[in-house]
Predict the 3D structure of the following.
Amino acid sequence: MLHTTAEQEALQQAQAARKHSKHQGRKLRYEGTRMACPMCKASSEIRTSYMPSETMRETFYQCTNVECGCTFAFTGEISRILNPGATPNPKVNIPLSTHVRRDMVRVLLDNAGEAAHQARFTTPVTGDLFAGDANTS
């Protein structure tokens, strides 16, 4: 691609102005899985993970810096629900975020009409959203 002299100078100035981070270890394919190594601060990648419960995942990371090689476990847990969605599971007890206006949700549910829906990806659950136990069909 041909650039004018002014464009080339602007590109060179922009490249020089960028801060270059000191990267140790190899670059990762999936940026969303990146976590800094607690020892050397290089990128670490997920090696394996498992779910000990429905709301918690334990993930094992390995540092990409071959001179470090640190391996560590990270535990992540769902802390609150921002939106309960259309298929809440009454067996999972996760607190609703304080920003949820429960009074408005109740009014909407009490006054909303119903329309037919054929579930494709989830098992249909019927019952009251605010009741402690729902009947599965």
Remarks:
- The beta strands are 35-36, 43-53, 56-63, 71-77, 125-126, 135-136.
- Residues 11 and 65 are 31 Å apart (CA to CA).
- Helices lie at 5-17, 102-111.
- The radius of gyration is 25 Å.
